[in-house]
Amino acid sequence: MFGSIDPQLLLASLMVAATPIMLAAIGELVVERAGVLNLGVEGMMITGSVIGFIAAIKTGNPWIGFAAAALGGAALSLLFGVLTQFLLSNQVATGLALTLFGLGLAALLGQGYLGVKAPVFPDWHIPLLGDIPIIGPIVFQHDPMVYLGLGIVAGVWWFLKKSRAGLVLRAVGENHEAAHALGYNVIRVRMLAIMFGGACAGLGGAYLSIVRVPTYAAGLTAEMGWIALAIVVFAGWKPGRLLLGAYLFGGVTALQLNLQAAGLSLLDVLTIVALVAAVVVVSVGFIQNRAFTAKMLWWAASLCIAAAFFSFYKWLGWVFNETLWLSSSPYIATIFVLVIMSSGGAPGSLGKSFHASR
Amino acid sequence: MTEPLVKLEGLTKAYPGVVANSDVSFDIQAGEVHALLGENGAGKSTLVKTIYGLVKPDSGTMTLDGQPFTPAEPRAARAAGIAMVFQHFSLFEALNVAENVALGMENPPPMNTLAQRIKEVSETYGLPLDPTRIVGDLSAGERQRVEIIRCLLQDPKVLIMDEPTSVLTPQEVDILFETLRKLKSEGTAILYISHKLEEIRALCDHATVLRLGEVVGTCVPKETSAREMAELMVGGTLHVPERETGETGETLMKISGLSAASPAEFGTSLKDITLEIRAGDVIGIGGVAGNGQDELLGALSGEIRVGAGQVAFMGRDIGQLAPDARRSLGICAAPEERMGHAAAPDMSLTENAALTGRKRKALTSNGFIDWGKTRNFAEEIIERFDVRTPGAGNAARSLSGGNLQKFVIGREILQDPQILIVNQPTWGVDASAAAAIRQALLDLAAKGAGVIVISQDLDELMEISDQFAALNEGRLSKPRPAQGLTVEEIGLMLGGAHDMEVAHVD
């Protein structure tokens, strides 16, 4: 029934579609764990995308493009860092200003590059693993940045969980006054975290312009930086959940593009998804509890009602803008799922300015 | 006399407008518990921060073990063998015990080894502690253990303790003192800051007294009375609160069967509390921290609404009234946490005065705040309660804890309440200011108001209250006349001797 949609290709493009948002979000996660709220992710992403693109075109080497994008993102975040950490400006206002600044800067820098094609960044056919049937093409035949992104997420997880420096970073984010009293340099830790966040956002942006699209266009990031921010919060500041959120976003993005191409009705798909989810809820719940609980029946009933609503709406034949809803579906689905499973635990000093005298 | 372990000579540190330390010199021997005494703002904290490397002195020298000692940062001080337990805990609530300990160490071992060592050391010193617990879930006493163990794991030569007992129960104080005596016998020098002079008499070998940044005297606490020490600190005679045992009048407030769930995540629910407050009565409520003190204050002030018929004022049911409505009736309250609960830290004293005084002092006209009147009210508080600040325009945050406490209590008392509920009225306040606050509470009661004092300082409660009751796990014991209560009886009440309560009910 999914006709022209190839599940193997769909799953493969999921990993590619998820990579930019994953990169931007993991950087912001580190920044927020250090107690800083940088709302300028979108601006740093788009700046990274244009700087990386220009560097890649000029040198013909995508790797240099990525390096330049990371440096550009870090440089922009350095501006944010100096303003908020040394001049104690308000983090929310400064972050918003950074986004506006980044968008303007990118539009200016990218003037001569609209529609130019990026140099080819070849996929990496991993020997042996890439030859496994089905799994090979899905997981092991992507460009190196996909794996670098996964490596950064794993590295951040290890850093925060296991390393001494990660413990200090968490301590600074949790209670900056206590960290200062113990003799840790709060400002230095935060500046490093901010720059790491900027570099990651820049990489994410460059991945869009060099690999994903692969050309430079105005408004290339399509507000992805904001979703990255939301993913960090709803993932409860945990790298594992962040990976899940990013892949969910990538998955729905890839799916909706395929749906658009296949010309399937979104309402039909939603009806089926809701019914399948209802069956999954009931069966998984039954296996776990060995009985039907009121909570899971409530969920299943809600999903069935939703399915009925979608098919009823289709039957009515009212106006329904397929493209609009499909394009927004990754954003809605990601927020929806992460809100349901979100758990609190914001860093204690998040968004608060620190000065040693106070 | 042997060579002193720590030798301070001529330490001076000036901040803009104030000299925190001026030519401070004294010695600490190995195996000595040395007390540092002084009022709020006498320069004790600056001095210990200097030793710990957080503050650089303008002039003067320190020697440790005969070597010149100039720590550039706490790291260097820790490496040299200085450890410090902070007045306001330097802990991270979202992290577990082992992680908190690791953060205070120079070269912590791997987590598993560290957890094992925390267990060993904590048991050796009688401070049992589970290294995997999240610090946010621990009681004040347990949190302090984390700080102490963090210090002990580094085998310190000098241990600095800044007001370690202000949040501890009497039992926890006893445990702490045993630990400190054990450390002392192992040759550790301890620099001990406290306002509780009886504790200093029980524990310390020598004392240095600071006043306005200068050393004004030294004494041997065991041979000096608490009163003499207090007078050294104040530089004059100490006023001890006087109580006129007046007749108590009509019943003002009646609490019957008060039960309320706690709004806080780790809070204690109130269970079936019954109490009667008469005019002219001072009711002292003791109990270990976290047994429902905050909730009781909230239920009486109106922050927590309770069911019908549980709280009545002059025969009127007020359980559903909000704090503002209760204030209009004459029920004022001062909660324990000064910064952020009793006062808004970043607002000026004038604005803070308006926050609770608006209704009773008629500080508004036609819905607008009358700033002139409000300023006068704030200045009246500052003058009457000796709040030390350059002016009413200063932010609440800029005041020291004791000064802000005087302001907060004064603000409520000057509104002439009929019922005043205070929680920890003299927490972190020096001896003379504490005496002034207690006197003001007694004066208020003498004028015919009912006063409820919730406190963990038993000496304070015995000094001012007519009736004493204890909170335990959200239950209140039956109040008993405070005069003639023995320490054993109080201990039984605090420990939650519910059988006694049952006997009364029958």
UniProtKB/TrEMBL annotation, chain A:
Pfam families: BPD_transp_2. The chain crosses the membrane at residues 12-31, 36-57, 63-83, 95-114, 134-160, 191-210, 216-235, 242-259, 265-287, 296-316, 328-350. It is a multi-pass membrane protein. GO terms for molecular function: transmembrane transporter activity. It comes from the Bacteria. The keyword Transmembrane helix applies. GO terms for cellular component: plasma membrane. It is found in: Cell membrane. CDD domains: TM_PBP1_transp_TpRbsC_like (cd06580). Keywords: Cell membrane, Membrane, Transmembrane, Transmembrane helix. PANTHER family: ABC TRANSPORTER PERMEASE PROTEIN, SUGAR ABC TRANSPORTER INTEGRAL MEMBRANE PROTEIN-RELATED. This is Branched-chain amino acid transport system / permease component.
TrEMBL record, chain B:
It holds the Pfam family ABC_tran. The keyword Transport applies. InterPro entries: AAA+_ATPase (IPR003593), ABC_carbohydrate_import_ATPase (IPR050107), ABC_transporter-like_ATP-bd (IPR003439), ABC_transporter-like_CS (IPR017871), P-loop_NTPase (IPR027417). Keywords: ATP-binding, Cell membrane, Hydrolase, Membrane, Nucleotide-binding, Repeat, Sugar transport, Translocase, Transport. The keyword Calcium does not apply. Residues 6-237, 253-498 form the ABC transporter domain. One of its GO terms (cellular component) is plasma membrane. It is found in: Cell membrane. Its EC number is 3.6.3.17. GO terms for molecular function: ATP binding; ATP hydrolysis activity. Its main location: membrane. PROSITE patterns: ABC_TRANSPORTER_1, ABC_TRANSPORTER_2. It is a peripheral membrane protein. PANTHER family: CARBOHYDRATE TRANSPORT ATP-BINDING PROTEIN MG119-RELATED, GUANOSINE IMPORT ATP-BINDING PROTEIN NUPO. This is Galactose/methyl galactoside import ATP-binding protein MglA. It comes from Octadecabacter ascidiaceicola. The lineage of its organism: Bacteria, Pseudomonadati, Pseudomonadota, Alphaproteobacteria, Rhodobacterales.
